[in-house]
Amino acid sequence: MNGPKKDNTHVVNTYNEWDPLEEIIVGTVEGALIPPWDVIMEASLHGKELWDFYKKHGGTPWPPEMIEAAGKNVDEFVNILEAEGVTVRRPVPCDFTKSYNTPDFEIKSGCYALMPRDVLLVIGDMIIEAPMAWRSRYHEHHAFKDLCKEYFHGGAQWISAPRPQLGSKTYVEGYEAPREGEPMRTILTEFEPLFDAADVIKCGRDVFIARSSCCNGFGIEWLRRQLGTEYRVHEVEVYDTHPMHIDATFYPLAPGKLLINPERVYNVPEIFKKNGWDILTCPTPVMPKSQPMYNCSSWISMNVVMLDEERVIVSREEHTLINAFKEWGFKPIPCNFYDFEAIGGGFHCASVDIRRRGELNSYF
Ligand code: DAV
């Protein structure tokens, strides 16, 4: 078995969102289920109609025509990546239909392997299995185990955050999401450390993380200590009544260029302003209101993937954002993605970068 490599040829190597991309995992629609209803979903999903939908259909497969349409989007995304010379890896198909229980909870089924971004935090040469707060996603790592083993044999580090218990002490009893304008609060207590990997975004030595319906202060502190003195972990203040993940909210795209969601970020951290970064305000998404969105908001438009400092994969219909990217000096590569976004998330959610050509640097 190989030990960690000391030269510059790590199989896993990613420090930011923009170094030239060499290898990426892309999720799959295969076997995807409608997530089974659970207490945490009231905290993450806007809109009562959605809750009713999940209460009724959770744990059953998405209709085949939706899966087919979403699958076509993923194929197009994969084709673009491969045409640009990126190695694309895929999870193994899993049976998510089994119910499971632990001493602390029981749940009707798992969900899917649509969004590796939430499951694996890849930073430097280390893969961290995230301590996820959705009971229905408790075993989602399994779809990525073969890949993690392979990367480990290739020299990567591979760890899991403390497995959460996800019993009643994890969630605020009787939680109600704040109404628009009320102070932000989330459903998680500080009983145990929790975050999804997508609550974190990398920017070299500086790592940004925001509390959400799946990330608490304990999780942030766990990550800070785990990453140690090489990194500075900053908590970003965001406003969202149903917060879930940082990557449709706050996104350092390239050195000196921070993309923000104007509805959620009121105070850009001082460190960006002090260092002369351009603060790029994401234009209002053009996605029509009639587009069914079962998991996320139309702000998923800003959930892009950078191939390098210039080339950015962006949802084809989001022409206002595409034009803004051009004005900001990027080279947008459009890809159809609305059908995937309907049941999952954007390009960033649907993937997790494994190797980018670059090193650990400070951009401030
Ligand atoms: O609707 O803005 C996006 C989640 C992305 N991982 C939203 C949540």
Kindly describe this structure.
With 364 residues, the chain is of the alpha/beta class. The protein has one domain: L-arginine/glycine Amidinotransferase, Chain A, CATH 3.75.10. Helix content is 21%, strand content 19%. β11 (250-254) and β12 form a beta hairpin. The two termini are 38 Å apart. The model has no long low-confidence stretch (mean pLDDT 96). Bound molecules: delta-amino valeric acid. Delta-amino valeric acid is lined by residues 198, 244-245, 247-248, 296-297, 299-300, 303, 345, 349.
Mind telling me which CATH architecture this is?
A: 5-stranded Propeller
Count of discrete structural domains: 1
Helical fraction equals 10-25%
Count the strands?
17
> Which sheet architecture does the biggest sheet show?
3 strands, mixed
How are the strands of the biggest sheet laid out side by side? 2-1-17
